[in-house]
Sequence to fold (778 residues):
Amino acid sequence: MIDFETPKPIVQLNTVVETVAVNMMRTVSREMDENEHTVPWDFINFMHTAVKSMGGTSMAPDADKPDDAKKEKRPSIGFQRLGHMVEMLAWGDAGMYLCIPGGMLGSAAVAAAGTPEQKKRFLSRFMGDKPVFDGMAMTEPQAGSDTSAIRATAVLDNDTNEWILNGEKIFVTAGQKALVESDGFVVVWATIDPEAGRAGMRSFVVEAGTPGCKVTKQEHKLGIRASDTVSVVFQDCRIPFENILGSPTVEKTTKGFKGAMATFDATRPIIAAQAVGIARATLELLKEILAENGVEIRYGLPRQKLTSIERDVIEMEVMLRSAWLLTLEALWMADNKLHNPKEASMAKVYAGDIVVKITQKAVEILGPLGYSRELLLEKWFRDAKITDLYEGTGQINRLVVARNMLGYRGSQLR
Amino acid sequence: MYSFKPSEEQQMLIDALKRYAMDDLRAAARDAEEEGQLPIELVEKGWELGYLQASIPEDYDGFGERSAVTGVLAAEELAYGDLAGALAVMTPGLFATPILLVGSEAQKKAYIPPVIEMEWKPFTAALMEQKFDFDPNDLTTTAAIDGDSVVINGEKSYVPYADGAEAMLIYANLAGATQGFIVPAGTEGVVVGERQKLLGLNALPFYTVRFENVRVPLENRLGGADGHDFAPILAASNVALAAMAIGVSNAALDYAVEYAKDRDVFGMKVAQKQAIAFMIAEMGTAIEAIRLLVWEAAWMIDGGNPEASKQAYLALSGAMDAAMMVTDRAVQILGGHGYIREHPVEMWMRSGRGFATFNGLAIV
Ligand SMILES: Cc1cc2nc3c(=O)[nH]c(=O)nc-3n(C[C@H](O)[C@H](O)[C@H](O)COP(=O)(O)OP(=O)(O)OC[C@H]3O[C@@H](n4cnc5c(N)ncnc54)[C@H](O)[C@@H]3O)c2cc1C
Fold:
């Protein structure tokens, strides 16, 4: 039965998260943006305590932990809840959202692919007194969208039973906090057999303080400046054999790699939720300022009678709402264990597009106000663009959607 | 609790309508368009599937309950087959559904059963007027109360099946508000004009209709002597048309996808070119996003949500743009062949443009 009612527990949580967004994020949003590379510790410490008191190690749904829904035999709403939460936090501040401890892609990878021992070893740290961070390192200087081109290597030293990592990773979100400012870890992608292509690719957990692993650079960015983005160099970096996620031998299949890609089916709609959060913040502020200036949006009129601003705002509302519904559908599918790579990428493509359009248009409409740093609008314009870039650019996600629609393999449409 | 899955019952209806839409409507669409006429047996067959009848409660001789969500699911499916045929099958709803929604008890009892008990008959409605900035909430056609009757003056356009209509619901401006009036066949002063020639929908007969001092009893005012709220009718029409825009878009998309996977260019399939594949991805994405907006608007209508009218307006606004974008690209993907009337995409492109204009031509 088609239903758009937000589940009660999500409505309740939303109210709480909104309070956080209003009181702990919006209040320092500008300051964090102006002072790149300062870490929003107040917010981080608060979130750490809050998440811990809710009994979670991270914000992501945990497959091993029976949630209330399972007890009562209702379908799970874990991803839907997460999507709502992320949307609201990104509405607060998309950069600060990325600073929340323990909830990033690294721990998601461990949660998805790790053995029970690995989960205990790597994830329990998030429940400690101090906030701990994680990251995921796939991208390299010469390999972004084309992940099959990564060159970082992992070689097994049979004498010591250790993996030796070598290579350089760039653009690691929260890498500084994970490796330097806390006892966190980064999940690193490397090949155990350069001849094997994707079949040789594995992910490894590298913990903070491991010799041979060094953060070498912090990027200066267009937006999401509260979030650190770093380069990490691995030079004969030795890690225990047990830090590999998945099988240590090369089977002649790409199953392991495909497994990694499958986590995108859950994470891409989360990026879409970020985009929707930024878009909603923008549209709300735009409408508020227009209303203060006596501009009323006359819904219901034929377009011929609307002003250009009214047409723009109405179009933005259409885009924002439909993007959110598309995102919810992808998350709902993930919760219901329905195969959703097409919908996940659709949500990412669409939300990434509309947030860029909405923020760009809003700055245009508000003229000197929009362009000024007095308001957060220009910041959201800068923040928005990242959602069309990371976790697969708009183009890469279009490829995924098209392949699914056309029934093509990667080799048929590249 | 969110859910994006139609109920089993709805799914059965969708499946039945899909078969009819493809085997009957789609199969006949091109000829009907060229000949300017839909075979009556074709419309009759769709009517017998009983979509409208199932949305009327037993009190008025139907066998179900009206649900806008079911309505938009059905409308999309029918329009996927052929828009003109879908509108034809749904035309009696233009008369019966507003009466069901806002009519008085007496009007429901008197007017609904004859519509749904009979075979398909041209019961219709007249809303649009021939001016560039037509606004359903600001009609030029006027109604004036004169004692216990109402006098209507003005000219309507895009009235389907006006010629030979059994009865007509006509909307007119009564002291600034859009109000409906039931006008039976043969009422004096109703002058049906020439059949209209349009950019699309050539299979469907549309007429202009002039109302020259047309006098009907006050009890024919929709809702009774005090009239009615027009918003629910407009919302029900907006979601219906939005759903049909999605149906037409999806038809164009599927056709373009099949073609692109078959057609060779430069040693590969057209669909393997990113310029084409990306268009296809965007078409599919827009359709799914706007479809959900339409569903949500319909769901809000069913729940009596006060924001439903606004949402229905937004849904149609999004759907009309999606339909133009998608149908245009479908023609583009077929290249020059898309321009030739042997393929249906040019017809869908003409239909696609219409959703910015069509007002009140369908209702769920
Ligand atoms: C702020 C930020 C945070 C990030 N966080 C992380 C992180 O935590 N971990 C991580 O591993 N990475 C991260 N990234 C990296 C990000 O995922 C990559 O930048 C992204 O995947 C694109 O890779 P690239 O920059 O090398 O661009 P390229 O792959 O060089 O792409 C350049 C252009 O070509 C297009 N293109 C590429 N391939 C195709 C194709 N097949 N068809 C059509 N067009 C194509 C792209 O869409 C793009 O427009 C982050 C990046 C940024 C900016």
Summary: Chain B has three domains: 8-121, 124-220, 231-357. The beta strands of chain B are 123-126, 142-146, 149-160, 167-174, 177-184, 190-195, 206-217, 264-265, 268-269. Chain B touches chain A through 48 residues (CB under 8 Å). Residues 249 and 323 of chain B are 5 Å apart (CA to CA).
